[in-house]
Write a structure and sequence with these properties.
By secondary structure, the chain is mostly helical. It contains 10 helices and no strands. It has helices at residues 8-14, 24-42, 45-60, 65-81, 101-110, 116-119, 138-150, 157-167, 170-186, 190-204. The longest helix is centred in the N-terminal third of the chain and has 19 residues, at 24-42.
């Protein structure tokens, strides 16, 4: 089994272009998971919820706990990237016994409870990078920074803001702008705090 990554499930579901046509459940789950993740990051909770549920329903047809666990972890990772921290990934506990060690390690990582010395080789390659700036994938970068913040480590909120902004991801952008505002206030940086407020207001639009 390949090591778990944020996009490995979608890559698996895409199948091999040179092989036979993939089954309907595979394509349906892939499309739903991609739409759900995009909608969540854009801030559209209703659409995201519907499509995540569709993806889970399609994967449940296979009876494979590992695939369903990866779909749930993809959803949880998007929340961590947006600084929405849960004690655990909802719905994952019943699957834990039948999920693989990579899924369990990644779940622990997302909640900030993993022992990196023990679980490092089981984590996605991006999450094994020492510095978030070295992570090429924007979502993986935000996840890494969210986990670090959850652990109480110092993070560069400006990098996260720039990453979310470049992708047009409204939900994590607002979350990281508020974090940038808190950092500026803690540092006594009145000008920086005001810049963050203006940008938050711009993203939110007329109230």
């Amino acid at each position: 089994m390949k090591r778990l990554g944020l996009v490995c499930l979608i890559a698996f579901l895409a199948g091999c272009a040179s092989g036979p046509p993939p089954p309907d459940w595979q394509m349906n789950a892939k499309s739903a998971l991609e739409r759900a993740t995009a909608a969540y990051l854009a801030g559209n909770s209703r659409v995201a919820g519907l499509d995540f549920e569709r993806a889970r329903a399609e994967l449940a047809r296979t009876g494979r706990a590992d695939l369903l666990a990866r779909a749930l972890l993809t959803e949880c990772a998007a929340r961590v990237a947006s600084l929405e921290f849960d004690d655990q990934c909802p719905g994952l506990a019943p699957l834990a016994a039948d999920a693989g060690p990579a899924e369990r390690a990644y779940a622990a990582y997302l909640t900030g409870r993993s022992d990196e010395q023990q679980d490092l080789t089981l984590l996605p390659e991006a999450q094994r990078q020492a510095q978030p700036a070295a992570i090429a994938d924007p979502l993986a970068r935000l996840v890494s920074m969210g986990v670090r913040l959850r652990r109480g480590e110092a993070v560069d909120a400006a990098l996260a803001v720039d990453t979310a902004s470049a992708q047009g991801w409204r939900r994590p952008l607002l979350a990281w702008l508020h974090q940038q505002l808190r950092q500026a206030q803690a540092a006594g940086d009145a000008a920086g705090a005001e810049r963050a407020r203006r940008r938050i207001a711009l993203v939110l639009g007329p109230q």
